[in-house]
Structure formats: C-alpha cells, structure tokens
Write a structure and sequence with these properties.
With 248 residues, this protein is an alpha/beta fold. It contains eight helices and eleven strands. The chain has a single domain, classed as Glycoside hydrolase/deacetylase (TIM Barrel, Alpha-Beta Barrel). The strands form three sheets. Strands 2, 3, 4, 8, 9 and 10 form a six-stranded parallel β-sheet that branches. Keywords: Carbohydrate metabolism, Cell membrane, Cell wall biogenesis/degradation, Glycoprotein, GPI-anchor, Hydrolase, Lipoprotein, Membrane, Metal-binding, Signal. It is a lipid-anchor; GPI-anchor.
Length: 248
C-alpha cells in the first residue's frame, strides 16, 4: 500500500517537474529556528569519514544533528562506505537532508538542471535510509525564485543558517572559539548553525567546545525539523538493498 502511495506521489511530482515552468509557488526559505531556546547544529558536504566521531560527540551531549549530504562531492553517495555512513547517522537519530548532488550553485542552473541536482540525491537518501527528505540546503546558500519554485514542486523547504563558524573558509580554531563566545554572550533565542562534516578541526576541537558552551547556556540541541516544528521527511519506508542502480 505504501509503495502504491509513493508511486502516485512520484508520478504527480514528475508531471509537475516536466510541465512548462510557469509561475509556481515558492518554497519556504528557513534561516532561523522558531522553537524557543533551541539550537540546530548542521553539518554540510558529507558523507565523510568524520561522521562517526561527530555523531558520538553529539550523542554524548544529548544533541541531535542534521546532516546535509551531497550525492557526488567527496565521493559517490552509493559507495559502500558512504552509504554506511549515511545509514549510521539516520539510524542514530540524526536528521538526514539534501545538499544536492554535485554541490553546484543552483542559482546558475536551468530548471531541468536544478531538478537533476535535487532528485538524484533525494532518490539516493530514500534508497539508503528509507526516508524521503523534506529539507534541502542549497550549496553556498545560493538560490533564486527558479530554485524556490523547483524546491516547492519537490516538497522541499530550503534551509540556510543564521550562524556559521567559518570552518570551511579558513577561519582558525581560536577565531571560531571567539565567534562562538560572542554568540553565547548575545544569547539569541534560537540558533541555526553551519559547520562542515569534512573539516578535522570541527570534529576534534570546535564542535566539543561549541557543545559545551551551548549546554552551559541552557539551550536544547535539536534537529532542524524539531527547531522549526516541521516534518523531517515527506514519507518513510524501508531502506533498499544495493543493486545495479546504486552508482554515480
């Protein structure tokens, strides 16, 4: 019965995607949490081999993370090790979401190219975890109305952020500590942060410090879905077994 429902959803989606792109509804763009006293810690550019340590560090702090995965950025998402990493994060209670297929600037792409970047990673996450994501993070935080229209057709919200440590652009660890200290001193009602799963110092130094400071300030450390009150997934079914379609 569930697979019948999924087939209907996908058929409807396909009809919408390939129709002429007239003016459509615009997807919601999320830049902040809405649930008071929450922090959503998010990690881009995986799956990567630091994910296990990040997950364990989050679990030790009773925190839920959100991982925005690419399909083919630091390696193919269907690679056995990468698929295992994604399933590990999902099965350990973290939210999995899309960071698009190849980490391209969506605002520079055509309608068909945007959908290709979106659907390929959505399909992969569904196959690997059984969960069809409801959130996409556009690479570089870049989007335009065409991207928002495509995301709306696909049932996706676009999730950006209101705080970043700067780990992927060369900000030093002491400088990241200072940014965190300034943030905690301001004590905003909510925080939606950006870090990167692919940076060693994020995993070994900055994340543990960030968690300690956030806990000391009394925040609840939750997923993007929890901090916005929105569903993490459009639907959930059983994960699939690898077959000849699991390739980039």
């Amino acid at each position: 019965m569930l697979f019948t429902k999924i087939s209907v959803v996908l058929a409807t989606l396909a009809a919408s995607v390939f129709a002429a792109p007239h003016k459509r509804q615009l997807a919601q763009v999320i830049t902040t949490c809405t649930e008071p006293n929450t922090v959503a810690l998010t990690f881009d550019d995986g799956p990567y081999y630091y994910i296990y340590d990040i997950s364990r560090t989050l679990a030790a702090a009773n925190a839920t993370g959100t991982f925005f995965f690419n399909g083919n950025n630091y390696g193919c998402i269907y690679n056995a090790d990468n698929a295992k990493r994604i399933k590990y994060a999902h099965d350990h209670g973290h939210q999995v979401a899309s960071h698009t297929w190849g980490h391209k600037d969506l605002a520079t792409l055509t309608w068909d190219e945007i959908h290709d970047e979106m659907w390929r990673v959505e399909e992969a996450l569904l196959k690997i975890t059984g969960a069809y994501p409801a959130f996409t993070r556009p690479p570089f935080g870049s989007y335009n109305d065409l991207v928002r229209q495509a995301a709306a057709v696909r049932g996706q919200a676009l999730a950006n952020w209101d705080f970043e440590t700067g780990d992927a652009v060369g900000v030093t660890v002491p400088e990241q500590y200072a940014k965190i200290d300034e943030l905690i001193a301001r004590h905003p009602n909510t925080i939606l942060s950006l870090q990167h799963e692919t940076i060693a110092s994020t995993m070994t130094e900055v994340l543990p410090y960030f968690l300690q400071q956030l806990q000391g300030a009394g925040y609840r450390l939750v997923s993007v879905a929890e901090c916005t009150g929105l569903p993490a997934y459009q639907y959930v079914t059983e994960p699939q077994q690898p077959d000849e379609t699991w390739q980039c």
